[in-house]
Amino acid sequence: MRRFVILSATWFGAGFSPVASGTVGTLAAIPLYLVLARLSLPLYLLTLLGFFFYACWASDRAEFIFGEKDSGKIVIDEVIGFLITMTGVPCSWQGIVAGFFLFRFFDITKIPPARFFDRRVKNGYGVVLDDVVAGIYAAIVLHLLLRFM
After folding, report:
1. Are 45 and 69 in contact (CB under 8 A)?
2. Which of 42, 37, 17, 52 is nearest to 135 (CA)?
3. Sign, CA torsion 99/111/19/72
4. For residue 12, which of 27, 63, 106, 149 sits 20 to 30 Å off, Cα-Cα?
5. Which of 96, 133, 102 has its CA nearest to residue 117?
6. Cβ neighbours of residue 14 under 8 Å, at least 6 residues apart?
7. 3-state SS, one letter per residue, for the chain
8. Of 108, 107, 102, 90, residue with least CA distance to 147
9. CA–CA separation, 65 vs 57, rounded Å?
10. Contact 65, 3 (CB under 8 A)
11. Angle at the Cα of 134 (from 99 to 15), degrees rounded to 5?
């Protein structure tokens, strides 16, 4: 079970990147998005809901295993954040690139309430919820960009 948690939380080892593990984790989320993008929107959203709870569980267990709160090795939170960013976005390289940069911007800047979740909420939910908020912000901006460009 320990290996399974580590593999999940680090998103198949992307979290072990010596630099910019969050960015590498976000890049590693793209193949999953390409698979999920084929789903209908309701099924995509249902999958995200299940993945959210899975990411919270894996993050919580990984914090215990690594002995660190919100360890940089845990990047499954970036995966769910990127998938939220890409909700309802037509699958194209332009959308993926824009979504990637927008998500990274909002994840790094932690605009409230993301900062609140990052600093105040404990356990796996605290690890994941700031990325959920960043994903929602990025999704809104991405949809506006795609609509008006």
Report:
1. no
2. 52
3. negative
4. 106
5. 133
6. 21, 24, 25, 27, 28, 75
7. CHHHHHHHHCCCCHHHCCCCHHHHHHHHHHHHHHHHCCCCHHHHHHHHHHHHHHHHHHHHHHHHHHCCCCCCCCCHHHHHHHHHHCCCCCCCHHHHHHHHHHHHHHHHHCCCCHHHHHHHCCHHHHHHHHHHHHHHHHHHHHHHHHHHC
8. 90
9. 12
10. no
11. 80
Distance, CA of 5 to CA of 17 (rounded, Å): 17
pTM: predicted TM-score of the whole model, two decimal places: 0.95
Place of tokens 């796996």: 124
Question: What is the number of residues in the chain?
Answer: 149
Residue type, 115: R
Give dist(CA 27, CA 121) in Å, integer: 26
Find the angle CA(100)-CA(61)-CA(56) to the nearest 5 degrees: 45
